[in-house]
Each structure stands twice: as C-alpha cells, then as structure tokens.
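Dear colleagues,

I hope this message finds you well. In preparation for our joint manuscript, I am sending the Membrane protein DUF2207 (Kribbella pratensis) sequence together with its predicted structure, so that both groups work from identical material. I would be grateful if you could confirm receipt.
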Amino acid sequence: MRLRLLGLSLCALGLLGLSTVPAGAAGADATSAAADPVVTNYDSQVRVERDGLLRVAETWKLSNVTGTFTRFVVTRDHLPDDIDHVQEIGDLQVKVGGQDKKAELKTEGDVTSIAVPDISGATTQLDVTYTVKGAVAKTLDGTEVRFAPLTGINLPIQTANIVFSVPEVSHVSCFAGPIDSNIPCTLAQIGETSGPTFQQTALPPGNTVKMAVGFPKGQIADNSIIEYRHTFKRAFSTDAAQLITALAVLLLGAIALFVLYRLRGRDQVDPRRVVPASLFSLGADTRIDFTPPSDLRPGEVGTLIDERIDPVDVTATIIDLAVRGHIQIVELEHSTEFARPDWELRRVSNAPAEELQRYENVLIRAIFGDADSVLVSELGKQVRANLAQVQDALYDGVVKRGWFTERPDRTRSLWATIGIVTTVVGVIATVLLALLSTWGLLGLAITLVGVGLLVVGRYMPAKAPAAGRVLGQVAAIRGELLEMDVSELPTDQHAELCSRALPYAVVLGGSDRWIDALVATDSTPDEADEGFTWYRGPSGWHLQYLPDSLRNLTTNLTGALFAR
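The corresponding structure tokens are as follows:
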C-alpha cells in the first residue's frame, strides 16, 4: 500500500516536472516524433566501496528538453515494525555540455529530487555525479545493495544502462515499471569480466528501475541508515526493556505507597471498638446530668472521626454554644409566606461561667466581632475570612489532646502537593518520552505512582493511640443517640437534655429523633410557642415548626460560613 501511494506521488511529481517545459516546445510540430522531449540514453556507473558507499556517475542524453529537468530517487523505504531504511545523497556535481551547472538537491518525504534549470537545445548531455549512503543492508547470507536510480522521470527513456563496479557478487535482480512492479528488466546479468550489468529499454514516463546486488559476508559493509516512524505503538513500546522498567517503577512505587500508608496513614486504633460511655449520668437528687466523656465537644467529635473540619462540625458547634447558653438564636418575623427566613444571633451577656475551648472562642469572635448581635444573612466575608482561624484552632486542639501527632490538614496538604507534583512530572515525562523515544510506558508508570500518592495522601495522618479510647466512646454515644428511648428521660429535664444531645446528633446522626423529642414537649399544641431559651421563634410560631426551622437554619448557616 505504501509503495502504491509512493507511485502516485511520483507520477504527480512527474507531471509537475512536465509543466516546466516551455510552451514553445509544446507548440512545435505535434506530428514529429523528434520534437517530443525524450531521454534518448541513460548510462550509469555505480562503484560500491567496501564501506558500503555508492559513487554514482551518470550521463544523460536529452532530446528537445527545455526548461528545468528534474529526476527523482527513492531515498526512504518503509519496512514493517515502524522501521524506515533511509538513503542520503551527497557530493552532487552536475555538468551540462562539459560546463559546471548549479542544481537543486531537495528531499521531500520518501523522495529526493535533483533539479537542473535552464536546459535548452535539440540535444543536451548532462553529466551527474553523486554519492549514496545507506544503500547497503544486511541479509541472512551477507549484504545487499538496494538502489533505484530511475524513479518517476517525467520523460520517456529509450535506453537505460547501469553497470556496477564491485567485488565478488552472490546474486542480482532488477525490476522495471511502476514503483511496486515485479516485471524483470530487459537485462540483468553478472558479467565474467565486468561487474553486474542492467539494461532497460522503452521505459515510459513516471516508471521506475530498481535493482539489488548481493555480496557474500565480509565483502561489503552494511551501512544502513535506520529511522523509526513515530507511531503510538512505538511511543509506548512493550519491548522487554521498556516493559520491565515500567513494571519495576510501578512495583517499587506500590511498595513505597504501601509502606507509607502503614507507617503514616494507617490508624493505630480500631474505630469499631465500643467503650462504655454515655452522654447522661445520674447526678445528685436523682437528677440526670449531661456529661459527655472526656468533655467532648461536637466539633471535636466530627474532626476526630473523618480528620476534617466539615460545615456540619461548625454548624453543630454554633448550636451547641446556643444550647449551653453562650449564644441565642432568634428567628425573625417573615415579611411574607414565601420570604427568605433570617435569624439573629445574639451574644448572651450573662453566659455560664465555663471555660470554652480555644476554637469556640475564636468562632464567637469571628461571628460577632465587637457587636452583640448579627444577622445570619449578614455574616458575610468577614466571618468567612476568619473561619480559617477557627479551623486552625480546632485542628490544633485535636493535636493538643493527643489524638494526632500532627495536624491532619497540613499533612494531607503536604502529601497532596507531592502527589500533584509527581503526577504532573509523570504527565510531562509521558508526553516527552512518547514524542522523543519509545519509553512512554515509563512516563505512565510515574503518573500512576503520583495518582497513588494523591489517594494515599487522603488518609494522612494516622490517628494516635490516644484516640483509640475516645473513638470507642464516640461509637457508644452514636449508638445511644440512634437507639435510646428518649421517653425515659425525666419529664422536667426532657427539653434541657434533648437540647444538649441535639448538637452531637447533628454530627453523629439521629438528629431528627431528638428534634421530634423536643417537639413532643409542647403541652399546648394549639397555642403559639416562644421556643426555648436558646432558640426563639417569631410571633405565632409553634414547636411543630422546629424541624423546618432548624433545617433552614443549618442550610443558611452553611451557606453564610462556607459559600464563596
């Protein structure tokens, strides 16, 4: 198929060459055969050096040729496995009528052209000498010259004679016609006193004469010039060296990632372990006290579980601060039934005398600043700008408690950066190696290691052993929040205890059942309710509205605090 395409290209070049003949020549007597441009004779002497270099001396006898005379030589042969054999033509010298003549040597695609301008006269003799490098290829029994000196000439050639000057010859062959022709030449023989001789008569325009001369081992050196065609298959070669190297990089990378996860990312505790714990304990005078184990706060619980500070952790902290008496949440009047709801957060002046965690103090300052109240709809950029300080304080707090040896966010950020850099390097290496070599698989292996780093980095860092007991207590609390019979709580403490448990349920699950328990404290469902000390509704508000109110509050708080 490649040879057929090359033949079509040569025919097109031949027609182009014909177009350079001046109109005056075409306007001559069309009935006169002598007026048609033709190559009456082509004689070539090819000397094959021991190192494989061909020294070619040609004599062209042209009749009625005017303008630019162009001849072509096939200098690139496409072989299987994306291999090309290339021939290089050099040391070109051209004489016309015994005088030196400047000619243009140009290689385009598979063909090299020699163009001699300003040819005129009824009879012209061209003497052309040049060298050919890369025409000798290795065979099973020795080496072989493969040369096609006549290719795509735009004129008919009446007689072509080619004689090789060589040492001992093992075989010869010659074919004439189209580029992929297997029609033998008029003559191809090994002379007793001279080198191989080839002859072809009446060669039509655009046709080719190609020949091969074989030599025993040790006579003529192989000087093949091999180039590889750039293809996807070759760029990502699966040859032994490339495949083994890529697999070795993948294997070593996988081992390194596994070791990294075991040492830095694998938690040293079993989060499924349950340690007896409860949010409630029996206090003096048979009252129930709310006593979360280890003085756990909702925000800390969420951060400990997934090693991240999520919007729900901050929202639960705000509700917890309200329930504990530091903030009051007031739902504002709705101007219309379809108006967007809003809430006022009020700082409580006579808040309980308890020590707040550092992240809780930072959160209160971020919300209120120097004011005593703020609308949820106006929390705005100032709160979001200070939210990073809240997250820093919360991360520092879980490290201070000994649950982590290093801050999870910074550790993940570090490994994410390493993973991204490795992935980018792998992608760049893949592109460059695929474009410039056959080692594209190595670049892919590096890229996969980088992706693996991104995945493993998400599990950084490992929880410290001190977090084990706390996680066990959290598992017990989750079970309590999801399964406890709320009706067993004392009636006079029902609202208070359900409110204290609600922020933990927001983080751990089961918030709906605790909100329903608060709704169930409504003893006068037909009358409007003010709400609780920590949450006040507008006029005409009922406790039955609490689920929707808290759901809307959570949505609006998340949007105000985390929206960009």
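For the figure legend, we might mention the following. The radius of gyration is 45 Å. The first strand starts at residue 38 and ends at 48.

With kind regards,
E.M.
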